[in-house]
Amino acid sequence: MGHIQITPSILNSDFARLGEEVARIPGADWVHVDVMDNHFVPNLTFGPAMVEALARVSPVPLDAHLMIEDADRNAPAYVEAGCGSVTFHVEAAKAPVRLAREIRAAGARASMALKPATPIEPYEDLLSELDMVLIMTVEPGFGGQRFLDLCLPKIRRARAMMDKHGLETWLQVDGGVSLETIERCAEAGADVFVAGSAVYSAQDPDAMVAALRERAAAARS
Ligand SMILES: O=C(CO)[C@H](O)[C@H](O)COP(=O)(O)O
Ligand SMILES: [Co+2]
Q1: With 80 as the cut, is the pLDDT of residue 114 above it?
Q2: Which residues are recorded as binding substrate (predicted)?
């Protein structure tokens, strides 16, 4: 398991002041940008031009979570836009191995996401091609949803698979992660934690990042 990383999602931040919003979380490891196309999910956010502008001002690297169809064709633009990590959904990729290799060759970390009903088992042999696996703990599309405990066994199975193959692949959780739920995720084997509403509804977002980090670390010891 890698060191604990906290990745605030800007989905529930103030879109009119995004530069200032990312400046409020200098203690984060990454900024999580939720790209939605209104097809893969029933919501629409932003595209590569806006992500590129945000990458120029962000104090920490960008972690793009692409909830878009035709990931094979659309994902490379987010590496070009300056993201340090690019996550595509396996449900939206026709050739996930080729896409992961393309993302890595272009200079970013390659990551693959699974919706709550998508099993990890068919992808065991792909894990070595990935820098990170994202296990969704809500149905993708919106921030502020309730954490789905039913995803915890999949986090455990994914971590066991990575250990079995001696892989250093990061394991990210996204959706409903808060001071209340982060311990369960850490105990199950996650090491990268996305938190959107928990961070941006806090009075002091950077203090919330520190509190989440501390709680995840406590769950491990
Ligand atoms: O991918 C996402 C939604 O599809 C978001 O990253 C996620 O929901 C973060 O927000 P919150 O912590 O409020 O659930
Ligand atoms: Co996300």
Answers
A1: yes
A2: 9, 65, 141-144, 174-176, 196-197
